[in-house]
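Thread: Newbie trying to understand structure tokens

Hi all, I'm a second-year student working on a class project, and my supervisor (Dr. K.) asked me to get a predicted structure for one chain before our next meeting. I've only ever worked with sequences, so writing a 3D structure as a token string is new to me. If someone could post the tokens and maybe explain what I'm looking at, I'd be very grateful. Here's the chain:
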Amino acid sequence: MKRPVLVRRREVWFPTVWGWFLLLIIAALALLLAGRNIYAFLAPNHLSGARLMIVEGWMAPRELDRSLEMFRSNGYTRVITTGGPVEPGLDHVGQISYANLARDYLVLHGIPENQVTAVPTPHSDQDRTYLSALMVREWLAHAQIAADALDVVSSGVHSRRSWLLYRTAFGPRVSVGIIAAPPTAYDPDAWWTTSTGAKVVVSEALNWLWTEIFFRPGAPDSPS
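---
Reply by user tm_fold:
Sure, no problem. This is what the structure looks like when written as tokens:
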């Protein structure tokens, strides 16, 4: 009877110094390539052919201007602005939400008042974009407006996450497009050269990845 073998010798290939050097170069090139393309990935532009535009009202005025450009050039007939309560110290002229502020800005700059509706989002410390999408969905149902397509305007690298969350909220029966407004706080073509750009892009990349993998809300027809 053979005695049981408890240990067996194996041959393992291990990089030399030059091998590690080559691997580091490949890794650095991969990171460089990813860094130069990650903004374009996180800030897609994909129109659905909709006549309904959803504008995330928390964006800066110059980013909201992208909504004005798209409204004038793409034949939208209705605009809905979203956003939660304004931060302390920013409230003025009786406005109570970023949705209201954005609506007034768009009307002031040329969109007919009867074509813009503010749909404010309740205060929330998490899942604010998804909650905004639910509020829009509920408002459309209450107003008895059937929407088979809509386009969402968001800011820069936040756009892919907004796109994902609106598609999740509305389900496969609604075609959701996305419009990424160029950011005003950093250069999107060289975001890594400033601390603001690096912070925003990296944090949004992580947030999108977490949402893609772990975010599991209720069914599209459920309240949450």
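A couple of things are worth pointing out once you decode it. The radius of gyration is 23 Å. The chain has six helices and five strands. Feel free to ask follow-ups in this thread.
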